[in-house]
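Dear Dr. H.,

I hope your travels went smoothly. While you were away I took the liberty of generating a structure for the chain from your last submission, since the lab meeting agenda had it listed for discussion. I wanted you to have the full record in hand beforehand rather than looking at slides cold. The sequence, exactly as received, is reproduced here:
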Amino acid sequence: MKPISLTSGLKRRRWPIILFTVALGLRLGVILTTLDQPLYTVNVADAYTYELLADRILDGDLGAGDEVFFHSSVGYPYILALIWAIFGKSLLIARIFQALAGAVSVVVVYAIARRLFGGEGEREKKRGESVGIIAGTLLTLYGYIAFLETDLLMTAYELLFIGLAILFMLRFLDERRWRQLVGAGLFLGAASLGRPNVWLVAVALSLFTVIVLKRQFGWKPLKALGAGALVVALTFALILPVTVRNAVAADDPMLLSSNAGVNLWIGNNENATGYWGVPGDMRDRLFEASRRRAEAAEGRLLKPSEVSAWWIGRAFDFIGENPGKALGLLGKKALLFFNAYEMPNHLDYYFIRERGGWTLWGLFVGFWLVMPLGLTGLVLWRSWENKHRLIVVFGVLYFLMVVGLFVAGRYRAPVVPLLIPFAGWALYDLWGKLRQKNWRALGKTALVLVPAAALVNWGTWHTAEAAYNWGVLAEAERRLGNTEGAEAAILRAIEEEPDNPFFYNNLGIYAQERGDLAEAEQLFSEAYELSNHNPDNAANLAQVLAQRGKTGEAVEILEAALARDPRNTDCLTNLAAVYIQTGRPDLAVRYAEESLRWGGSAPQTYGLLAYGYLSLGRTDRASAYLEQGLTLHPEDQGLWLTRVQLHLSTGDFMGARRALERARSLPGNDPRLELLSRELGP
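The corresponding predicted structure, in token form, is as follows:
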């Protein structure tokens, strides 16, 4: 055998190298043109949650807290933590690594297309190479996928892991080597850490493989079952550490995350639209709101698994009581799945593109093109083999899982890279018929392509709320410290949706922070009325009323809210604060402890308990609650100032000075800081 020279090796791999280089360059271009956008300068929404979890891991908390993960991508905080541990914390570095993952995905799709449409003969090899190049180019120029790959969520890695798993499965069907099943199982497990439903895909593909091995290749049943079991076992081997972590840290052995129940309900309830949408009081903090509703209905504290089960029950109640409406909703979600519009669920692709992400305009390929071509390829391809059927099994299963919940662009995204090879073949076939001027064959292609294009591009389901986009932008501006920009964004949101209490509530928070309590009261009152006296809005209104000395009104509002929702931790904590203000520490500690009982863990709650028991002369209880609070919130300035007061009450001036120095080093504008500094001196 002659050794392969470097030149010939590069020549054989020139197209993967070219595709990777161009794809990476275009994705870096997306990053560069969005560098100064607030939505990419700081994290918001789900991305911010993952950032906080990554920070905990970097600080040494390898379990990332003591609650079951709510958000789906349980592996993403660990990926971020690993990157930041090596290169330093930087959102830009994280985005660059995701761009690299996206560029590798292009090469993987090229390889999948070659395997699906190539063959042993020279003609088949040439066809496979051509279809691979077309498929890789389609993904390279796919704007929405490039957008997802540079958004700080796990999507880039999910798509890469799914693509690699499918490639290994295809290679196994061709070559039947066990190590290929090992690769498939490991990558399916890794993908499950981003999208929990992938483990179901692993089970389905394993069953498909067992059937093929037994029927077509004559494997004995035990050997064929062993092949399928290997894939499933390796998939769950990567999932198991998260399950064990949930069992140990939270005493609730959930497989991965706990949001399946509420997601099922979002897509299957009386007011469901087919895409993401929840009542206004659940928009801001879905995890807390969904848990609070379930616990209020059950009248007891619930584990995350029980909360998820409660929401699953509500979804099936709707389906059972309204079968006709549920079936119609399912049909609507099926149409949404095939529609060209990319339904937002985090950042909005169209909003980003219009606000500076101009490179995305150049990446013109989208669902509008790939889905019609992919459907055409699926219908017209004739030389069906098991490897093609495996792609169909994946696509059908994923379609059912998405429409069973609700449709969003990034939820259906895993189907796109596996549809693109069929789209690539459809273009290859179409070009061949055009060159041959085979009008009859072109007519047959048109009979499939035109209806498919009409299905995908007929009608536009603009599900994005402009108000939501401005609200997310306001969150980013506020995190950047640009209060004026945040207020301007919220005012734009109110122009779009003038009756949304969420926006008036946020404006109230801004007014309260700058000390304009009269305006804050007016805005919180507006939010309170628009929300039909929602307890969350009641808590904010009562807080500012108390600050203005209207303690009677504050108590009245809070008691009315607690009559509706006795376990609302914000209302319980704020009522405790009012009773501290009015000189009733006995009532203050009662309501603050009730807040802790129902899951409240805000630093203010621990501070109120410490201050209340200190006022009652119970320094032991005050100290115990203060230590609990500082364990959970070591960076809270208010708790350290309460510790100063505790040390002063016991005559420990050295301890008070140390606590005061710690408080001075932390962000915050607690008015006690100046008073205690004067009392203790410089």
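Two observations you may find useful: The first helix runs from residue 6 to 12. The two ends are 83 Å apart (CA to CA).

With kind regards,
E. W.
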